[in-house]
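User: Can you recover a sequence for this backbone? Please restate the input before giving your answer.

Assistant: Of course. Working from this structure:
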């Protein structure tokens, strides 16, 4: 039987996680993204669990909302056919057909796989931007800007390579 102290800690951790989810979902509702767009069950892990499964740079980007240095990511100039997935939970995020060279130093996409990427308001560093995250594990992917290809969506999903894995399409 668990001690009262360990039960209090477990209840406290559960409360904090529920509070974070409630805050996140409230933010999503405020900017007009439907809750019904989430197609997969949420993955919730502790910081220690994430640290066990991610590399240090993946943890920094996905969990701490960090940014890798420009031109250092493996997918910046990667153009094979396939699917880019979340490095935290393997959720499919972007099709290679939507990748283009934005000359920014980070992988850029003009669209994402619906229901698998969410957008939230990011007011960090004194700027108002739109952050893109994995809808399943809430991992930070990058930001979206309105300077993408005009012939398609006009959007540039500027994504950290460290937040991605790649599954090559069968030839």
């Amino acid at each position: 039987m668990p001690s009262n102290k360990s039960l209090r800690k477990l209840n406290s951790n559960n409360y904090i996680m529920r509070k974070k989810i409630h805050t996140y979902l409230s933010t999503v509702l405020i900017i007009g993204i439907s809750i019904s767009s989430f197609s997969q069950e949420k993955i919730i892990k502790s910081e220690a669990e994430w640290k066990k499964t991610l590399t240090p740079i993946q943890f920094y980007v996905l969990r701490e909302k960090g940014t890798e240095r420009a031109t250092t990511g493996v997918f910046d100039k990667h153009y094979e056919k396939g699917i880019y997935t979340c490095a935290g939970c393997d959720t499919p995020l972007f099709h290679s057909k939507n990748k283009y060279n934005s000359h920014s130093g980070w992988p850029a996409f003009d669209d994402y796989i619906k229901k698998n990427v969410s957008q939230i308001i990011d007011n960090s560093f004194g700027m108002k931007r739109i952050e893109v995250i994995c809808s399943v594990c809430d991992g930070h992917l990058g930001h979206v800007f309105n300077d993408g290809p005009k012939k398609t969506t006009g959007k540039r999903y500027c994504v950290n390579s460290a937040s991605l894995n790649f599954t090559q399409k069968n030839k």
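That completes the design. Residues 10-38 have pLDDT under 50 and may be disordered.
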